[in-house]
Specification:
346 residues; alpha+beta; two-stranded antiparallel ribbon; 11 helices; 7 strands; 12% strand; elongated
Length: 346
């Protein structure tokens, strides 16, 4: 049915499109595919070769169909005796609309409406299928955001290994020498004699007297009596008290209140994802970052943002560098929020 209505390749008719027409249409399609696939990476660096291959294939197929449509109009007008160049230029200028006009005109002139209605029906079906495929790619709000965020976010790091067990404390064995050991005669002469050190007396010093005390004095009294106590009190009061211990600086602070934001010294701009640019998607990606003591991004977490923009924002912010934040003269880690804006130019 398709051959009879469009190509006229029934046994009683000569086909309009011959082998040379197919070859002529195939040449520009192949050339467009090669130019896009090998020439586009010289201008911009593609993120994914599979996407580039798909785009080059689609453009090549579109150019092939367009050239085949022009060949059909030129050959069919010569077959029917119409003006070939008039309809060729009209189809070249109006594209599919010109081809539909030509089919309706030839159907009216030849009184054979099958050759016009069936191709138009095929084109409408092809357009509807193309719209059904492209609409989910353009309007991505209907896609499950939770699943996309789970795919784009990196998995959590594995838990750290448990700490090694503490080394056992060696027990010191103290042997007490009794009177029987002293009075017992040795059975053999030892080669070496070990020195035995007595353990310090654990009796508190406040419970015993000191040299120079007085009878009936209080335990733990001052060395030298009352005069020594007075002199010692004067000397101890003259000595300045030790300075208070310096407060330890916190290891990590959060930006907000009286804490100023860290200062950027290197901020490369994120690259706009091609798929998001084609879909006209723009917005802000909010990240939570930990800035280390040397000003480098230590950890990044996605708080909110479009799934197609998150990956580009993470790659750009990971390369940012900040001036180290000082607190009491010491560098500290800073927890802050970073907003990355993606805006399409009009």
């Amino acid at each position: 049915m398709f051959d009879e209505c469009l190509l006229e390749s029934s046994p009683s008719r000569v086909p309009v499109l011959r082998r040379k027409h197919w070859l002529i249409s195939l040449v520009p399609g192949v050339l467009v595919f090669l130019v896009v696939f090998f020439g586009l990476p010289m201008l911009i660096e593609p993120e994914n070769m599979n996407i580039l291959l798909t785009q080059a294939s689609i453009l090549g197929i579109v150019v092939f169909c367009y050239a085949l449509m022009l060949c059909y109009v030129f050959a069919d007008t010569q077959h029917l005796g119409f003006s070939p160049w008039f309809w060729f230029i009209l189809t070249l200028a109006l594209n599919v609309a010109g081809f539909v006009i030509y089919l309706i005109y030839t159907g009216f002139e030849t009184k054979n409406w099958k050759r016009a209605t069936l191709p138009i029906a095929y084109m409408i079906e092809g357009i509807l299928i193309g719209v059904m495929v492209l609409v989910p790619l353009i309007y991505t709000e209907a896609l499950p955001k939770a699943q996309l965020m789970g795919i784009l976010m990196a998995p959590p790091p594995p838990p750290p290994p448990p700490p090694p067990p503490a080394a056992p404390v060696p027990q010191r064995i103290i042997r007490k020498v009794t009177v029987d050991d002293i009075m017992r005669a040795p059975t053999m002469i030892p080669k070496t004699i070990a020195r035995i050190k007595d353990e310090p007396d654990e009796t508190p010093q406040g419970a015993v007297g000191v040299v120079g005390g007085v009878p009936g004095g209080v335990p733990g009294g001052t060395l030298g009596g009352v005069l020594g106590g007075v002199i010692g009190g004067v000397l101890s009061s003259a000595v300045a008290p030790p300075p208070p211990p310096k407060a330890a600086a916190p290891k990590r602070i959060r930006v907000g209140g009286q804490v100023e934001a860290a200062r950027l010294i290197f901020q490369p701009k994120p690259e706009y994802p091609p798929l998001a640019k084609m879909a006209r998607i723009q917005g802000t990606v909010r990240l939570e970052a930990i800035i280390s003591k040397d000003g480098m991004i230590q950890d990044l977490k996605v708080m909110q943002g479009h799934p197609l923009l998150v990956k580009s924002a993470l790659e750009a912010v990971q390369r940012w560098r900040y001036q180290p934040t000082l607190l009491n003269g010491e560098p500290v880690e800073v927890i802050t929020e970073i907003d990355v804006n993606f805006t399409l130019s009009e």
